[in-house]
Amino acid sequence: MQAYEHIMAIMVKLFNSGQLTLDNSLSMIRRFGAYFTYPDSVRALVKLSTNSAFRQPSHMSEGAYMEFIVGEELKTLKNGFPIEKMYIPDGLELKAADGPTSLELAKKHNQEVFQTREGQAIYAHLIQDTHTDELFQGYIAKCYIDENDDSMETGEAYSLYGVKTKAGLARFNQTGRIVPMSEFREVVSYTQQLTTLELFRMLVQAYPDITFQQIQEAVFSSYDENYPEPMMNAKQYAVPSQEEQTRILYALRTGDYEYYKRLKIALVEKGAFRDINDINRKVNVLIHKTTSLPDERSVGVSR
């Protein structure tokens, strides 16, 4: 999920949990929005410490982990995330898709932090990522397949958010089609546009007067209050791009979803899904899981 999808999913969940007013929901984002997106935003600090913007430590994947820092200690960090609070296995590589998020590893190394309101927000993010992993790297594809399985070249290293990642191949599970990681990420991008549309549609149903600007202002306020300067680049992911906002608002206002229909057709043509009904089912399942009330894996976000 994109950072703004985490925020929107949490706002839908807050509405579902207690019929909160829009002001109440935005107030919660002002307080804890920085922590609902923390595992993504903290990569800027990881890069300062390691010269590599690893995703794995903050998402507890591929054996990597970190002990999350919150509160004033986080706000005053300047020179990167403390090396002694991270474990990065030897040979760990930047990837266009790393392994699935491990909630058990996260809880093992963050028991005390997860008892705080800030830590509960971080954990809510990680739960959402486990559901996203189930779709992208469970249902849709197997990433970084063994190159001995085929005779294709692995292609160029893929640049993700301006960072060069390991070259490799993915196999789409529904059709067996093998593609370079750049095409896998294209499928991720198309699918995320569909989930972003659905999340904002649900927010408009809950709060008819909501705007992207209100969400952005609330997130910015939380970042300013809680993040050190190196993490402020996360502001660019607080809401979708202006172009995407315009598309979403146009579709919701006019009922013209032609652009999104073309995305679905492209996803089927690429071999990522069996058909459009398959896409609709899987998008609905992901949205349901990421916006439902806490399940047995959650430590809660409302104590």
Task: Please describe the structure with a list of short key phrases separated by commas or semicolons.
mainly alpha, 54% helix, 7 strands, two-stranded antiparallel ribbon, 303 residues
What do these coordinates show?
With 303 residues, the chain is mainly α. Helices cover 54% and strands 6% of the residues. The chain is built from 13 helices and seven strands. The strands form three sheets. The protein has a three-stranded antiparallel β-sheet. A two-stranded antiparallel ribbon has the order 1-2. Strand 6 (169-172) and strand 7 form a beta hairpin. The longest helix is centred in the middle third of the chain and has 26 residues, at 181-206. The protein is globular and about 50 Å long. Residues 296-303 have low confidence and may be disordered.
Biggest sheet features: 3 strands, antiparallel
- Helicity level: 40-55%
Order of neighbouring strands in the sheet with most strands: 3-6-7
Count of alpha and pi helical runs = 13
Mean pLDDT: 92
Q: Give the tally of β-strands.
A: 7
Radius of gyration: 19 Å
Structural class: mainly alpha
Run of helices and strands: HHHHHEHEHHEEEEEHHHHH
Summarize the structure.
This protein is mainly α.
Present the secondary structure layout.
Layout: H1 3-18, H2 22-36, H3 38-41, H4 43-50, H5 56-59, E1 65-66, H6 71-75, E2 86-87, H7 103-108, H8 117-140, E3 141-143, E4 159-160, E5 163-164, E6 169-172, E7 178-180, H9 181-206, H10 212-226, H11 242-254, H12 258-270, H13 276-291
Antiparallel strand pairs: 1-2, 3-6, 4-5, 6-7
Helix pairs in contact: 1-2, 1-9, 2-8, 2-10, 8-13, 9-12, 9-13
